Amino acid sequence: MIEEGGNKRKTVAEKRQLFIEMRAQNFDVIRLSTYRTACKLRFVQKRCNLHLVDIWNMIEAFRDNGLNTLDHSTEISVSRLETVISSIYYQLNKRLPSTHQISVEQSISLLLNFMIAAYDSEGRGKLTVFSVKAMLATMCGGKMLDKLRYIFSQMSDSNGLMIFSKFDQFLKEVLKLPTAVFEGPSFGYTEHSVRTCFPQQKKIMLNMFLDTMMADPPPQCLVWLPLMHRLAHVENVFHPVECSYCRCESMMGFRYRCQQCHNYQLCQNCFWRGHASGPHSNQHQMKEHSSWKSPAKKLSHAISKSLGCVPSREPPHPVYPEQPEKPLDLAHIVPPRPLTNMNDTMVSHMSSGVPTPTKRFQYSQDMPSSLADEHALIASYVARLQHCARVLESPSRLDEEHRLIARYAARLAAEAGNTTRPPADVSFNFDANKQQRQLIAELENKNREILQEIQRLRLEHEQASQPTPEKAQQNPTLLAELRLLRQRKDELEQRMSALQESRRELMVQLEGLMKLLKEEEQKQAAQATGSPHTSPTHAGSRPMPMPVRSASAGSTPTHGPQDSLSGVGGDVQEAFAQGTRRNLRNDLLVAADSITNTMSSLVKELHSG
């Protein structure tokens, strides 16, 4: 009794180990439910080593364990689920180097207990195939785009249209993950969850599904899913910036910058917990940064953006064809035996578990060396493999196929031990071998022809991509285009040199104007201090509060500004004409802006050309 009680307590401790470790991380102090849920699920993912397994390895594990041949509503036992999980982790250790091996037994125990707690809260000891696929495909590592494509393939029909009932079932299963980490009140399943994702009941194809799921912001019930993937991407991002609250010299992960307070930045731990200091408030708008850019890079990006050199933003995902890809037709490789009914090829089981022959294949023990039955058996097995996507297979059916293979291997071994054969069997075997050799020869010839065709197409492509000078000389259109391009290039170079020369002249004129302005101001100041009553009429008619912008500078006995403005443009002469009230400094700024606009138009024209 004592030993049984100790084992029971040990089992309960193993089931609660993952949740105890998660509570020790103190994620509940994060005030935002989205970040709190994403952090908890990211912890479960890393603790169970699921971040080391991508979606393609998951699909391979599903196929190895026969889950792809089962209906989504089929229930599997906990023992079979443990077999699936074990194959995932053992295959993972084969791919990892010897220095990075994981504890397979511990990972199996943690993940199995988490899945049972999330999907078998009633303790029935069974999970549906769709629950297993949805959970493992969501929690594994890899790109979110690849996961969504696989999930859509499980919810769409043969025409590539999403079935809303299956999408509703997917939401039920995937939203059990936040509930398992005690975030059900924020992201639990409701009857209106499907409408929050797709308000209009219309045909949903793959591209529309990806646009909705990867939008910014995503659907409210799944807002934690892209955040969990972004957490994985920024875990090792370093920001050489000091946190304005905790004063740590650098940050890891996300960085948050206040849009109202000058140079106020918080690390992710302080922002998630709602810390604030000084004039900053939690109500201020914050911008999330997932990378660090130096001031030089920011300046170069701003200049490139102002000049229009920044490329357009790429779409969030590539556009996929609307129609799903058709499966490969392997009929020309392994021709199946014509069958009228798939049930004719099935092998029934007796109570003892030994397979007995059916009405199609009547094997007798007095003909152990006959090859006709073996070839028929192989043909039926190939046909069953080709139709496995349309026939519902059960675990006993899979074991039955393995027994077929074992039986055939045993027959071959028994025939190898028989040294003497009847002449009829020998001739039949010789004919079969001859046919096989002919088939192999035909396939080799076809393979050789295909390789030659590939080589020929490759040579044609290389020749087309690299035209020879002789072909260029024979093509007058190509020569004309080259001539026009050279002429356009020369014209642009000439215009650029002319604009540079004009810019140089304008800069010289601006420098002369600045000198002239300083001289006029000095002379005006000297005249005002030396003889303040020399020009009473002007002083009384033009009172100016600012000495820098005084208009009486033109009445001095020295030479007028028109004498020293020879060769200057009309706009500049007009700016310095007598009697005008324009601001000279503003005119200089306008002239500088015209230079900038001229150079910008030249750069745009060069890029367009």
UniProtKB/TrEMBL annotation:
InterPro entries noted in UniProt: Distrobrevin, EF-hand-dom_pair, EF-hand_dom_typ1, EF-hand_dom_typ2, KCMF1/Dystrophin, Znf_ZZ, Znf_ZZ_sf
GO CC annotation, single: cytoplasm
Biased amino acid composition, Polar residues: 529-538, 552-565
Localization (cell): Cell membrane; Cytoplasm; Synapse
Ranges where the record places region Disordered: 521-568
A Pfam family that the UniProt record links to this protein: EF-hand_3
Keyword terms of this UniProt record: Cell membrane, Coiled coil, Cytoplasm, Membrane, Metal-binding, Phosphoprotein, Synapse, Zinc, Zinc-finger
Biological process, per Gene Ontology: synaptic signaling
Residue ranges of domain ZZ-type in the record: 238-294
CDD domains: EFh_DTN (cd16244), ZZ_dystrophin (cd02334)
Source organism superkingdom: Eukaryota
Molecular function in Gene Ontology: zinc ion binding
Similarity comment: Belongs to the dystrophin family. Dystrobrevin subfamily.
Protein name: Dystrobrevin
Upper taxonomic lineage: Eukaryota, Metazoa, Chordata, Craniata, Vertebrata
The encoding gene: Dtnb
